Every structure is written in structure tokens, then in C-alpha cells.
UniProtKB/TrEMBL annotation:
PANTHER family: BIS(5'-ADENOSYL)-TRIPHOSPHATASE, ECTONUCLEOTIDE PYROPHOSPHATASE/PHOSPHODIESTERASE. This is Type I phosphodiesterase/nucleotide pyrophosphatase. GO terms for molecular function: hydrolase activity. The lineage of its organism: Archaea, Methanobacteriati, Methanobacteriota, Stenosarchaea group, Halobacteria. InterPro entries: Alkaline_phosphatase_core_sf (IPR017850), Phosphodiest/P_Trfase (IPR002591). It comes from the Archaea.
Amino acid sequence: MSGSTTSSERAFVLGLDGVPWRFIEQWSDEGALPNFARMRDEGASGTLDSTRPPTTPLAWPSIATGVWPDKHGIYGFQNLSSEYSHEMYTSRDLAQPALWDQLGPAHVGNVPMTYPAREINGTMVTGMMTPSTDREFTHPPELQAEIDSRIPNYEISLDYPEYADRPDDFEDAVDDVLANRRDLMEIQMDRAGDDWQLFFFVYTAPDRFQHLVWDMDRLRAHYAQLDEILGDVMAYADDHDADLYVVSDHGFGPIEGLVYVNRILEQEGYLFRREDEGTRGALASLGISRDAITGALNRVGITEETLVQSLPRRLVDSVAEQIPGDHALYDVDYDRTVAFVHDTGNCYINDTERFDSGIVSPSEVPEVKADLRAAFESATDDDGDPLLVVHDGDDLFPTDEGSPDLVVCGRGVYESR
């Protein structure tokens, strides 16, 4: 959106992480979000298709580069090697140029997956997945000192599991992060002056907030703050005759259950664990296993679900964050494993061409893939409804032979882990 009917030579991209379009539609129609309402009236709007899986590390690079993950090369938070090692993706792994590599001067703030900061024509402050503010996270480097001076105790991300049992404190913490992010945007606006071609700034606060808060009144109040920010950005874009784009990486919704997909693979005989690793091995030597423990609990009327519900939410959320597909692979016996899920829903067949300890020949991959798909799709809840949606990696990522074989996502109110 700009003040003229012709395309501008400047663009401002305002990113709002995890914002569902249905909230913007409803609350702007009700008059609670006047700036969003103005954008809808004067511009074009609608639901964007996200990546599969619809997650931050895939979607923001796709927005920034204009290509799907099979072309930009990032499939999650962690890269998977042929030796089964896991390393965090960084901006160096991006295989295609981003907008800020092609337009300049550019000013980029808090965009996920941009660490380490690139030496672009302009300024960059890296976002989510930056290890720490103790590391260099800006370009030029001296910008970091200005941030430290103007925003004491600046934080890049908010560790929301820490607040799982303190919702009021969490809301205050999110408000503080949002205020600090507005201050950061102002710093970069001051740096930009009138000499810029691209401004690309992301607010991750709505995503963080919605991970713990799903109360419509509190969400609406948070979105009212986002609307105020949008008003500031609209005025800035109008003053600089810039086209304005407001985008999100994915939507959001309530989660009623977690589906541990590697557990399904274990139960179906596709994934095997080594019983000689660390604590698991010590317990196994005493005849203690997960199945033995859950069996004993069941005999006295305690299910896994009951046990989890009785634990402090902070503990459950913190542990759950550590056992998506990647962290649950530390003790996999790859010499016997047919398939495993890595990161968020990325299912890999352990084939002999791709992995050092692969056991599936390339000729067997299509049949194994079909069997895996059937196994995932047969998982149902107590009402008999399917828990998962399964996508073929060849359909999602046709240009990259190293992409996942399947992508397994939660259906409806379920999330795959």
C-alpha cells in the first residue's frame, strides 16, 4: 500500500509471526483494528498458503527469497547430515538470495533465521535462532552498541515455557518484548533516514504469546497493540512513498493433543532404539523400560495422560520442547531403523544412498514410503478421527533429492512432534 496508484520504488515488509488471517478479518470488521481495516479497504488481502510443514524456519526464508524450501534449502531448525548429526541452520545455509541481497539500501530487523548477520548494503539485526545477545548479531557491528545503549537488556527471543505457570507475568514479558521491538524498529528507521529501498521487519511476539495464551479477550488486546504498530508503519511508509506488505509465516490455533510420530514408528517396527545409551542403558540393565513403567502405572489405574496432566505445566512444556523428532533421535539404532522423523514432521527413509548406516535400498523406497504413509494415516483419536496429515516429499520438494521423503503434520487440533 502506498500513497499513489502506481508501484513505488520502495517496499516495507511488516512481518507478524503466527497471525491467523481469521482474527484480522473478524476484529477489523468489529472495529477493534482500525489500521488493519484501512489496509483491507485500500489494498488487497487474503489467506496466504504457507509451507509444509507450516513452520517458522521454512516459511520466513520462503517469504524472503520467493521460493519453496527445496530451492532455498532450509527444512527446519536443524540440518540433518548423512551421518545423522544435527546442526542448526543459519543464514549461511540459505541457497538463494533474499530480498535484502538484491535491494539496497535495506534495513532488516528481527527476521527469523538471519543469524549471522549478512554484510548487506544497509543494516541488519538478526532474529529468532540467534544464539545470544553476547554474540555479534548486527550489521554493522557498531549498531549493537547503540541497541545496548537505547534498549537496556534487549532480548531477541522469549523463552515462553519459563512462564507456563505464570500467565500474568508472561503477558507483561510479552508486552516488554513488543515495546523493545518497537524501539528497535525506531532505531533502524533513524539509521535509514530517507535513503532506503527495502525495510523488512518482523514481530514474533504474537507467536510467542499464543503458545501459552488462547483467551480471545487477551488475544484481541494484544492484536490491538499490533494494530498500533501497523499505524506507525503505515505513516512511515506513506511519508516515504513506499509500498507496504503485511505478511505472516503461518497461522495459529488451539492444540488439544500431541502426536509423537517417532513413537508411532517404534510401535510399527520401523524405528529401533539402542538400549545401551546413558540413562536408558542403565535402567535397561535393571530391567526397567518405558513399557515396564507405563505398564505398572496402568495396572494401578494411572495412564500416561493422567500422569502428564498432574505435572506442572511448565515442566511438561519444557520437556515437550525437547522431544520433537530431532531431540528424540539421540539413541536410535540406525543399523536396524527403516525410517525416522527429524525436526518438525520431516520423515526420512534410512536408505543406503543418503545415509551412512542406511538399510533400505533405493528400489525399496517407494514401497516403504507407501507403507509409512499408511501407518501414519491409520493413527486415530478416541473418536476414530485421523490424527495426522501426510504429504509426499516428492510433491512438496520436487527439485531436491535430499528433501524429506514424507512430511507429517498434525490434523486439526493435534500437533505432530
